[in-house]
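dumping these here so i dont lose them again. two proteins, back to back, each one seq then structure tokens. dont judge the mess
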Amino acid sequence: MLVLAFALFGCAQKTDMDAVTARVTALEEKIATLEKRGGSGPTASAADPAKEEAANAIMKGVTEAMKGSDFGAAKTGLEKLTKEFPDTKAGKAGERMYKEVGLIGTDAAPIEVDSWFQGKGDYTGSNVTLMVFWEVWCPHCKKEIPELAAREADLKKKGVQVLAFTKVTKSATDETVAAFLKENKVKFPVAKEKEGSMSKGFNVSGIPAAALVKDGKVIWRGHPGRLDDATLDKLISG
């Protein structure tokens, strides 16, 4: 690398060459560190195919258990996955899922908001509450929120109220959130979180995210797109 640096900067003054040399040396040290850590890159060791296959098999079982609302089996599978295969792709995905499933059966976090963009809501307003976490800059959220708005009437017939929460992060502003809600004819209550307390209380690490609360207890946690009518009916009737 140093030879290449001098070839490229042969006409540079000594002070310039010292700076180039320092940058090249720093780069070499960084590459060496990444290689020792096994980080991403051409020198990173390849994943063990056998472990990946075993982890994928466990994840498949977890997914089936989740579809059948057998959260006990899902939790057991995730525990095995994260302990025995933590370095696999499925194992890393399982870490977040484990935090989600771990909430099921616990008391729902109290509703703490900075302000409401529209409406107001709490757990006492309905037997079942669908909590949705989103941001206006999130492409998937911009798809899910309007779809939930279209389903709201049917959800109300099932005794389910929808409450949505945003932290108004990155490029979002109160104005862009309000404009999005108006443009997409969203009618259910939407609030601005108070210092992210709601997201923390529901272990939200990726959005969109959702949780179903019944009688003050979390009975489901996951992606809102996975909560179809069949799954919802089974959960609220259980």
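---- next one ----
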Amino acid sequence: MRYLILLAGMGKRMGNAHAGLPKCLIDINGELLIERLLRQIRQYDACADIHVVLGYKSDVIEPLVDGCRIIVNPFFDITGINASLWFARASFDQPLMVIHGDVVLSDELAANLLAMKAESLVAYDSSVLDPKEINIALAYDRVTRFGVNFTGYSGAYAGVFKLSAYAARLFAGTLDRRVCRGFNESRTYYFFVMRKLIADINVVFVPFDFARYRWKEIDYFEDIAVARTRISGRDNADAC
């Protein structure tokens, strides 16, 4: 399976904490976040083909992603996630899983997520019900809505999605057409792409609920301590 890890962001919501280092260099109980994620992918998928998008402090991250295909977003400081995905559009020529680089997963969660047979999926957490989050809605065991500022949501998006070969091509093509008309707002998100895919009868997004697992997305400095506490202990026990 191919994996695309998004690591270009500056993590501005962290402020001046963590000495200005990228979030993927946060230590999670003895492992840097990116080292942890790469270990998990390679441990649970021996044939993993890993692509990474770098930008902010790429020179610091690059030595840690040996064996990965490196893609660079040179405009990381004035663009958002859509630009990173666009620069990686060649990676969408086959099925792939896209993972935000600030997501901390337990080993159990990583193993079960990577073992999912669904061609396309969206990860979410049904225990996080916050109207300010990016949310998804479900009906008949499929994702029917993805975005912000709507009611009737089923939980918060968890920063991971998987695409079939058809969905991957549609994702890249939809994004490319928008970008070729101009980047629009520099900080835009890929809501419009997901809406396009959800509306396509050939794409069925299966929901994968993180609620029963230990995980944390790191947005703010205080999330680091939460992630370390939440992840600690069980991973080592699981390995025994």
